[in-house]
Amino acid sequence: MANQLSNRVNAGKEPERTSSLKAVALVFLKLGTIAFGGPAAHIAMMDDEVVRRRGWLSREEFVDLLGATNLIPGPNSTEMAIHIGRRQAGLAGLLVAGACFILPATFIVTAFAWIYVTYGSLPQVAGALYGVKPVIIAIVLQALVNLSRTALKTRFLMAVAAVAAALAFFGANELLLLMGGGVAVLAGKWLLTLRRAQLSGWVWILGAWPLELGKGFAAGTSGTAFGLWPLFWFFLKVGSILYGSGYVLLAFMRADLVERWGWLTETQLLDAVAA
């Protein structure tokens, strides 16, 4: 009863317009340390922390911020942390919230990476990772199903997704597929506005050129030697064009780091996802 009353009071009160830098740091340090499960889980925990518990934002403001993060590339949960930090404590809050949310995961991943490189070849560790891989595949498949329910709302979008999946299977470049898919959807809406029904020809035309260009790109970049600058440019590229769920990142990493450049094996990529 007391919790219900507290929730009603928090839901009805005015949002707290400013917060101390210390409060912002503690909240996002906590979230950055315990928020496992991907952007969707991070967003849910932020909602619980800054809307329900602390009343920093109203539900409407939180949803507006979430909508804004979906309009720009990059990881949604990190962008939400930065937005909320800026909203509560100005420019210093922006920097502190971002750093406190990102750094714990950075240290944890660094520790896991060291353990993997040092002990990953041991039979006990290899056996544990081998047992985790089916679970990771199941999680990714579940995420794909959930994303498809949201994204594929019409038959035309389903058709574009099917064409893109087929082209990706034959080695088309993922960036060109994204551009081609976007142009195909825009062209489809334009054709529907003009009451034209021959959408299949447009889908084929807008889907064929990414396949050919993607094959040429893949042929010209396979086997690239590893280096810090190529690694930097890869993640800069991905960070500049990646929208939506972090699961989309897996497609880029597999296409470039595994198939195109050979920096990782399929096993190492799955182990990284498991960790």
Brief overview:
The chain has twelve helices and no strands. The protein is mainly α and 275 residues long.
Question: Your description of this structure?
Answer:
The chain has 2 domains: 117 residues, no CATH class; 152 residues, no CATH class. α2 packs across α5 and α8 packs antiparallel against α9. The protein contains 12 helices and no strands. 21% of the residues are buried. With 275 residues, the chain is an all-alpha fold. The two termini are 40 Å apart. The protein is 80% helix and 0% strand.
Question: What brief labels describe this structure?
Answer:
single chain; 2 domains; mainly alpha; 275 residues; disordered N terminus
Structure annotation, total helices: 12
How many domains in all?
Answer: 2
User: Biggest β-sheet: count, sense, barrel?
Assistant: none
Percentage of residues in DSSP E strands: under 5%
What is the secondary structure topology, with strand pairs?
Blueprint: H1 2-12, H2 21-34, H3 39-53, H4 59-69, H5 76-119, H6 123-151, H7 155-169, H8 174-193, H9 199-221, H10 228-241, H11 247-260, H12 266-274
